[in-house]
Fold this protein.
Amino acid sequence: MARNSFPTGNTRVLGIVGDPIEQVLAPTLWSELCSKNGFDIVCIPMHVRPADLKNFLDGARGWKNLEGLIVTVPHKIEALKLVTVATARAHATGAVNSIRPDGQGGWIGDMLDGGGFLAAYEDRIRPVRGQRVLVVGSGGVGAAIALALGEAGASEVDVSDVNASRAHALAARLGAHGVASKSVDPTAKGYDLVVNASPAGMRPEDPLPIDLDGATSDLAVADVVTKPADTRLLLAATALGCPVQGGLQMAEAQIPLQAEFFDLPPGDWRLSSSNSH
Ligand code: NAD
Protein backbone atom coordinates (compact mmCIF):
# COMPACT_ATOMS: atom_id res chain seq x y z
CA MET A 1 0.00 0.00 0.00
CA ALA A 2 2.99 2.31 0.33
CA ARG A 3 2.89 5.06 -2.25
CA ASN A 4 5.74 6.46 -4.32
CA SER A 5 4.34 9.06 -6.69
CA PHE A 6 1.11 10.61 -5.54
CA PRO A 7 -1.66 11.09 -6.54
CA THR A 8 -2.05 8.52 -9.32
CA GLY A 9 -4.94 7.11 -11.30
CA ASN A 10 -5.50 4.67 -8.44
CA THR A 11 -5.79 7.35 -5.77
CA ARG A 12 -9.12 7.42 -3.98
CA VAL A 13 -10.80 10.60 -2.82
CA LEU A 14 -12.32 11.90 0.41
CA GLY A 15 -13.93 15.33 0.32
CA ILE A 16 -15.06 18.02 2.67
CA VAL A 17 -17.95 20.08 1.38
CA GLY A 18 -18.72 23.53 2.81
CA ASP A 19 -19.19 27.23 2.13
CA PRO A 20 -16.83 28.92 2.98
CA ILE A 21 -14.16 26.23 2.79
CA GLU A 22 -10.83 28.04 3.31
CA GLN A 23 -10.89 27.52 7.11
CA VAL A 24 -11.21 23.72 7.16
CA LEU A 25 -8.40 21.56 8.52
CA ALA A 26 -9.70 18.23 7.16
CA PRO A 27 -7.78 18.17 3.83
CA THR A 28 -4.44 18.58 5.61
CA LEU A 29 -5.22 16.28 8.55
CA TRP A 30 -6.85 13.48 6.56
CA SER A 31 -4.30 13.54 3.74
CA GLU A 32 -1.44 13.40 6.29
CA LEU A 33 -3.07 10.58 8.25
CA CYS A 34 -3.80 8.56 5.09
CA SER A 35 -0.19 9.05 4.00
CA LYS A 36 1.09 7.97 7.45
CA ASN A 37 -1.01 4.80 7.16
CA GLY A 38 0.15 4.12 3.59
CA PHE A 39 -3.38 4.57 2.21
CA ASP A 40 -3.63 5.87 -1.36
CA ILE A 41 -6.31 8.43 -0.45
CA VAL A 42 -6.34 12.21 -0.75
CA CYS A 43 -8.78 14.57 1.02
CA ILE A 44 -9.79 17.65 -0.97
CA PRO A 45 -11.81 20.77 -0.15
CA MET A 46 -15.06 21.14 -2.14
CA HIS A 47 -16.50 24.66 -2.15
CA VAL A 48 -20.21 24.27 -2.86
CA ARG A 49 -22.84 26.95 -2.33
CA PRO A 50 -26.11 25.99 -0.60
CA ALA A 51 -28.12 26.47 -3.81
CA ASP A 52 -25.86 23.95 -5.59
CA LEU A 53 -25.72 21.25 -2.90
CA LYS A 54 -28.48 19.06 -4.32
CA ASN A 55 -27.06 19.10 -7.87
CA PHE A 56 -23.57 18.47 -6.50
CA LEU A 57 -24.64 15.42 -4.48
CA ASP A 58 -26.77 14.10 -7.34
CA GLY A 59 -23.71 14.26 -9.62
CA ALA A 60 -21.24 12.91 -7.06
CA ARG A 61 -23.36 9.79 -6.49
CA GLY A 62 -21.73 8.30 -9.58
CA TRP A 63 -18.18 9.17 -8.50
CA LYS A 64 -16.71 5.67 -8.34
CA ASN A 65 -13.45 6.40 -6.48
CA LEU A 66 -15.06 8.58 -3.81
CA GLU A 67 -14.76 7.19 -0.26
CA GLY A 68 -17.13 9.72 1.22
CA LEU A 69 -17.72 13.33 2.17
CA ILE A 70 -17.36 15.26 5.39
CA VAL A 71 -20.19 17.80 5.49
CA THR A 72 -19.59 21.11 7.21
CA VAL A 73 -21.20 24.53 7.66
CA PRO A 74 -23.76 25.42 6.32
CA HIS A 75 -24.79 22.10 4.74
CA LYS A 76 -25.29 19.74 7.71
CA ILE A 77 -29.05 20.18 8.02
CA GLU A 78 -29.81 20.27 4.27
CA ALA A 79 -27.63 17.22 3.60
CA LEU A 80 -29.79 15.13 5.95
CA LYS A 81 -32.72 15.78 3.59
CA LEU A 82 -30.65 14.68 0.59
CA VAL A 83 -29.37 11.31 1.85
CA THR A 84 -31.21 8.07 1.15
CA VAL A 85 -30.63 6.59 4.61
CA ALA A 86 -29.51 8.25 7.83
CA THR A 87 -28.75 6.82 11.27
CA ALA A 88 -31.16 7.32 14.17
CA ARG A 89 -28.72 9.77 15.82
CA ALA A 90 -28.57 11.85 12.62
CA HIS A 91 -32.36 12.05 12.57
CA ALA A 92 -32.44 12.87 16.29
CA THR A 93 -29.89 15.67 15.77
CA GLY A 94 -31.54 16.89 12.58
CA ALA A 95 -28.23 16.92 10.67
CA VAL A 96 -25.45 14.83 9.13
CA ASN A 97 -21.71 15.59 9.08
CA SER A 98 -20.48 12.48 7.25
CA ILE A 99 -21.97 10.84 4.15
CA ARG A 100 -20.85 8.03 1.86
CA PRO A 101 -22.14 6.53 -1.38
CA ASP A 102 -24.32 3.46 -0.69
CA GLY A 103 -23.15 1.70 -3.88
CA GLN A 104 -26.65 1.78 -5.33
CA GLY A 105 -26.85 5.40 -6.41
CA GLY A 106 -27.76 6.86 -3.03
CA TRP A 107 -26.09 8.28 0.08
CA ILE A 108 -25.85 7.03 3.68
CA GLY A 109 -25.49 9.74 6.36
CA ASP A 110 -24.39 9.90 9.99
CA MET A 111 -23.75 12.59 12.61
CA LEU A 112 -20.48 11.94 14.47
CA ASP A 113 -19.83 15.27 16.24
CA GLY A 114 -21.46 13.99 19.44
CA GLY A 115 -19.60 10.67 19.37
CA GLY A 116 -16.30 12.50 18.89
CA PHE A 117 -16.98 14.73 21.88
CA LEU A 118 -18.01 11.79 24.05
CA ALA A 119 -15.02 9.63 23.08
CA ALA A 120 -12.59 12.46 23.87
CA TYR A 121 -14.26 13.22 27.19
CA GLU A 122 -14.51 9.66 28.46
CA ASP A 123 -10.99 8.87 27.30
CA ARG A 124 -9.38 11.90 28.91
CA ILE A 125 -11.55 12.96 31.84
CA ARG A 126 -14.17 10.52 33.24
CA PRO A 127 -17.30 8.52 32.39
CA VAL A 128 -20.42 10.57 31.66
CA ARG A 129 -22.82 8.17 33.37
CA GLY A 130 -24.59 9.89 36.25
CA GLN A 131 -23.09 13.31 35.55
CA ARG A 132 -25.10 16.53 35.54
CA VAL A 133 -24.27 18.39 32.34
CA LEU A 134 -24.86 21.87 30.93
CA VAL A 135 -24.48 22.41 27.16
CA VAL A 136 -24.34 26.06 26.04
CA GLY A 137 -25.20 26.63 22.36
CA SER A 138 -28.19 24.70 21.03
CA GLY A 139 -27.32 24.57 17.31
CA GLY A 140 -26.21 21.51 15.34
CA VAL A 141 -23.14 20.71 17.42
CA GLY A 142 -24.84 21.43 20.75
CA ALA A 143 -27.71 19.10 19.81
CA ALA A 144 -25.32 16.34 18.72
CA ILE A 145 -23.27 16.60 21.94
CA ALA A 146 -26.32 16.83 24.21
CA LEU A 147 -27.90 13.74 22.61
CA ALA A 148 -24.65 11.74 22.81
CA LEU A 149 -24.18 12.66 26.50
CA GLY A 150 -27.80 11.76 27.24
CA GLU A 151 -27.45 8.41 25.48
CA ALA A 152 -24.24 7.74 27.43
CA GLY A 153 -26.17 8.00 30.70
CA ALA A 154 -25.76 11.60 31.92
CA SER A 155 -28.39 12.03 34.65
CA GLU A 156 -29.39 15.44 33.28
CA VAL A 157 -28.42 17.44 30.19
CA ASP A 158 -29.56 21.06 30.58
CA VAL A 159 -29.18 23.44 27.66
CA SER A 160 -28.77 27.15 27.05
CA ASP A 161 -28.57 29.51 24.08
CA VAL A 162 -28.62 33.27 23.49
CA ASN A 163 -31.58 32.38 21.27
CA ALA A 164 -33.90 31.09 24.01
CA SER A 165 -36.34 29.42 21.63
CA ARG A 166 -33.53 27.21 20.29
CA ALA A 167 -32.68 26.06 23.82
CA HIS A 168 -36.37 25.37 24.61
CA ALA A 169 -36.72 23.36 21.40
CA LEU A 170 -33.59 21.32 22.13
CA ALA A 171 -34.66 20.62 25.74
CA ALA A 172 -38.01 19.36 24.40
CA ARG A 173 -36.23 17.17 21.81
CA LEU A 174 -33.96 15.69 24.50
CA GLY A 175 -37.02 15.02 26.67
CA ALA A 176 -38.65 13.18 23.77
CA HIS A 177 -35.54 10.95 23.67
CA GLY A 178 -35.83 10.17 27.37
CA VAL A 179 -33.08 12.58 28.50
CA ALA A 180 -33.92 14.80 31.51
CA SER A 181 -33.39 18.36 30.26
CA LYS A 182 -34.46 21.94 30.78
CA SER A 183 -33.50 25.32 29.35
CA VAL A 184 -31.41 27.30 31.88
CA ASP A 185 -29.10 30.29 32.31
CA PRO A 186 -25.44 29.52 31.42
CA THR A 187 -24.17 29.17 35.00
CA ALA A 188 -21.81 26.34 35.97
CA LYS A 189 -22.93 25.99 39.60
CA GLY A 190 -24.45 22.58 40.33
CA TYR A 191 -23.04 20.79 37.26
CA ASP A 192 -20.31 18.16 36.90
CA LEU A 193 -19.55 19.10 33.27
CA VAL A 194 -20.18 22.30 31.32
CA VAL A 195 -19.69 22.46 27.54
CA ASN A 196 -19.44 25.50 25.32
CA ALA A 197 -20.97 24.29 22.04
CA SER A 198 -21.36 27.82 20.64
CA PRO A 199 -18.90 29.83 18.52
CA ALA A 200 -18.32 32.19 21.49
CA GLY A 201 -14.60 32.32 22.17
CA MET A 202 -13.40 32.39 18.58
CA ARG A 203 -12.79 36.14 18.82
CA PRO A 204 -10.72 37.67 21.64
CA GLU A 205 -13.50 40.14 22.45
CA ASP A 206 -16.17 37.42 22.94
CA PRO A 207 -17.63 37.32 26.45
CA LEU A 208 -17.29 34.08 28.46
CA PRO A 209 -20.18 31.87 27.31
CA ILE A 210 -20.48 30.20 30.74
CA ASP A 211 -20.40 31.85 34.18
CA LEU A 212 -17.84 29.89 36.23
CA ASP A 213 -18.58 31.77 39.47
CA GLY A 214 -18.50 29.41 42.45
CA ALA A 215 -17.08 26.53 40.37
CA THR A 216 -14.58 24.20 42.07
CA SER A 217 -11.93 21.87 40.66
CA ASP A 218 -14.54 19.03 40.53
CA LEU A 219 -16.11 20.71 37.52
CA ALA A 220 -15.01 19.56 34.05
CA VAL A 221 -15.08 22.26 31.35
CA ALA A 222 -15.11 21.61 27.59
CA ASP A 223 -15.11 23.85 24.54
CA VAL A 224 -15.85 23.00 20.89
CA VAL A 225 -13.95 26.02 19.54
CA THR A 226 -10.78 24.90 17.75
CA LYS A 227 -9.22 28.31 17.06
CA PRO A 228 -7.85 29.45 19.45
CA ALA A 229 -7.10 26.13 21.15
CA ASP A 230 -6.85 27.90 24.52
CA THR A 231 -10.12 29.78 24.69
CA ARG A 232 -10.73 32.23 27.51
CA LEU A 233 -13.21 29.73 28.98
CA LEU A 234 -10.60 26.97 29.11
CA LEU A 235 -7.95 29.32 30.52
CA ALA A 236 -10.36 30.45 33.27
CA ALA A 237 -11.24 26.81 34.06
CA THR A 238 -7.59 25.78 34.14
CA ALA A 239 -6.89 28.59 36.61
CA LEU A 240 -9.58 27.07 38.88
CA GLY A 241 -7.89 23.66 38.66
CA CYS A 242 -10.69 22.13 36.55
CA PRO A 243 -9.99 19.35 34.02
CA VAL A 244 -10.51 20.78 30.52
CA GLN A 245 -11.09 19.52 26.98
CA GLY A 246 -10.63 21.62 23.84
CA GLY A 247 -12.21 21.57 20.39
CA LEU A 248 -9.15 19.99 18.78
CA GLN A 249 -9.46 16.94 21.01
CA MET A 250 -13.09 16.54 20.02
CA ALA A 251 -12.12 16.85 16.34
CA GLU A 252 -9.28 14.34 16.71
CA ALA A 253 -11.48 11.81 18.54
CA GLN A 254 -13.95 11.98 15.68
CA ILE A 255 -11.43 10.91 13.02
CA PRO A 256 -11.44 7.15 13.83
CA LEU A 257 -15.25 7.22 13.97
CA GLN A 258 -15.36 8.80 10.52
CA ALA A 259 -12.71 6.40 9.17
CA GLU A 260 -14.91 3.51 10.29
CA PHE A 261 -17.99 5.15 8.75
CA PHE A 262 -16.12 5.60 5.44
CA ASP A 263 -15.15 1.92 5.66
CA LEU A 264 -11.42 2.68 5.48
CA PRO A 265 -8.97 -0.06 6.51
CA PRO A 266 -7.89 -0.12 10.18
CA GLY A 267 -5.17 2.46 10.79
CA ASP A 268 -3.45 4.73 13.29
CA TRP A 269 -5.58 7.87 13.31
CA ARG A 270 -3.71 9.78 16.01
CA LEU A 271 -2.45 13.19 14.95
CA SER A 272 1.28 13.58 15.47
CA SER A 273 0.71 17.18 16.61
CA SER A 274 -1.94 16.29 19.18
CA ASN A 275 -0.57 17.84 22.33
CA SER A 276 -3.05 20.59 23.22
CA HIS A 277 -5.16 19.94 26.32
P1 NAD B 1 -24.84 26.68 14.81
O1 NAD B 1 -24.84 28.01 14.15
O2 NAD B 1 -25.75 25.58 14.33
O3 NAD B 1 -25.19 26.88 16.37
C1 NAD B 1 -24.51 27.77 17.22
C2 NAD B 1 -25.50 28.16 18.35
O4 NAD B 1 -24.79 28.90 19.34
C3 NAD B 1 -26.66 29.03 17.88
O5 NAD B 1 -27.88 28.48 18.32
C4 NAD B 1 -26.38 30.40 18.54
O6 NAD B 1 -27.55 31.10 18.87
C5 NAD B 1 -25.62 29.96 19.78
N1 NAD B 1 -24.76 30.98 20.38
C6 NAD B 1 -23.94 31.85 19.75
N2 NAD B 1 -23.27 32.60 20.68
C7 NAD B 1 -23.68 32.16 21.90
C8 NAD B 1 -23.36 32.52 23.22
N3 NAD B 1 -22.48 33.50 23.52
N4 NAD B 1 -23.98 31.88 24.24
C9 NAD B 1 -24.89 30.90 23.99
N5 NAD B 1 -25.23 30.50 22.74
C10 NAD B 1 -24.63 31.13 21.71
O7 NAD B 1 -23.34 26.20 14.81
P2 NAD B 1 -22.79 24.72 15.07
O8 NAD B 1 -22.72 23.98 13.77
O9 NAD B 1 -23.54 24.13 16.21
O10 NAD B 1 -21.27 25.01 15.48
C11 NAD B 1 -20.96 25.59 16.76
C12 NAD B 1 -19.46 25.66 16.94
O11 NAD B 1 -18.90 24.34 16.94
C13 NAD B 1 -18.70 26.40 15.84
O12 NAD B 1 -17.83 27.30 16.46
C14 NAD B 1 -17.92 25.33 15.11
O13 NAD B 1 -16.71 25.82 14.60
C15 NAD B 1 -17.68 24.35 16.24
N6 NAD B 1 -17.42 22.97 15.80
C16 NAD B 1 -16.41 22.27 16.40
C17 NAD B 1 -16.17 20.96 16.05
C18 NAD B 1 -15.04 20.20 16.69
O14 NAD B 1 -14.79 19.04 16.32
N7 NAD B 1 -14.37 20.76 17.67
C19 NAD B 1 -16.97 20.30 15.09
C20 NAD B 1 -18.00 21.03 14.49
C21 NAD B 1 -18.21 22.38 14.88
User: Anything to note?
Assistant: Residues 158 and 182 are 5 Å apart (CA to CA). The first strand starts at residue 12 and ends at 18. The pocket of nicotinamide-adenine-dinucleotide is lined by residues 73, 113, 116, 136-142, 161-163, 166, 197-200, 209, 224-226, 247, 250-251, 254 (CB under 6 Å).
